Structure formats: structure tokens, C-alpha cells
Structure of Enoyl-CoA hydratase:
Amino acid sequence: MIDVTIDDAGSIRTITLDRPAVRNALSVAGLEELEAAVADADEPVIYLTGRGPAFCAGADLEAVGDLDGDRERAEAFARLGQRVARTIEDSPAVVVAGIDGPARGGGLELALACDVRVGTPASTYGEPGVTFGLFGAWGGTVRLPRVLGTGDALEFTLSGRTVDAEAALRMGLISRIEDDPRVVAESIATNAHDALGLVKRRIRDDAERATQERREARAFGELVESHADDVDAALE
């Protein structure tokens, strides 16, 4: 079974979650395929999307059922999802999530690990785990407060509610709404590739301020040195 497909074209690697019959829910194998697809990318931009009428429904419920109530196996499954989300977040590439249809639970958590999240007008978002006694454990409780703030993250997850694209935009879950989210990935890919990676690392840097500023200045120096001709051309 192939859960993830890859298409490399120009400066963009497109990774498609490819189980539309189950709204692209991810099994253990699917998570491992996704991790490898992100880790192996040489392109400066990765576009992550889902096939069919959903982005990703999160964890495959059959995979959760197969845990058979075993606490250690459940923790291992959560750690796998967390590791995949970290791989996305730490990728040298800029990762753009193109979200059409539902992004639920682990699917939303994987999107939160992406650098840019773009939804279609038909996209919807939710962490419904509390409605059946669970919660998203692929890094969602870490990243949601960073994105929404603690209060809104608590309300969103504790209510188990679903929001549409306009509400997600207002909340900050997504940054844009586009009929075709891929246009955002294509636009980003037209920029200087070395600058993309450096800017991503600087914005995601969580060191103390003096260290961040020192690294920022060093990165700026690197780019000025390597793009001197481009700067001169822009001034002409």
C-alpha cells in the first residue's frame, strides 16, 4: 500500500497524502513514508497536500485500534507522529501545506509543523479527539499555543469544535485562503533559494535574543557576500 506519493518538478517537491478512501488518514507505514519523503527532499520548497476531498483526517483509526489499549505501544505511536512533525519543521526546505477539505487531529498537527499554511475556501480544521476520549499527540499541544496563544488553543482543543477557512484565517491557523494553494508554493520558489533556507532558520530560532541577533547578522553577511551582483543590479 502506498500512502504517500512524490512528484519533483523544478524547485518544488510535491508530497501528496494518497489514501482518499479514508480521507488520507495516516498509518504507521504512512507516517514513515511521509518522514522519508520530507527528509530526502533536495528541493528548496516542499508542497504538502492531500488527494481527494480531504487534506488529512489524522491518525488511521484502525492503527489506533490495533494498539489494543497498550500504553507503551500508544506512546510509541505518538512519538512517531511527533518525530514526523519535527522532520517537517526542521527541514531545510520551506514547507507549504496546501489544505483542501478537512484537516483533523494529526492532520492539523502536521500542517502546524509546516512553515506556511494555505487553505482553500472549502478547508475545515478541528481537533476532535476529546469527543471520543483522546487528543492529538503529534506535537499539537506544543505548537497550537504558539500559533493561537494559550487561551485560544485551550478553547479550540477542549471544545472539539470545527472551524471553516475564514475562521481559521482570523485565528491564525492559516495565513491565506486560495482556490489553488499551490500558487503560494510556486511564488515562494521563485525567490533566492539560499535566502529561503536562512530566513526559515532565523525565524524558527528559539535561542535567547543575543544569540538570535548574532546568528541573524551572520546570515545577513553571508547573503550580502553571495548576492552582491544581484544587489548591484537592483540598484541600477
Q: What stands out?
A: The two ends are 55 Å apart (CA to CA). The beta strands are 4-9, 12-17, 45-50, 94-99, 102-104, 116-119, 124-126, 162-164, 176-177. The longest strand covers residues 4-9.
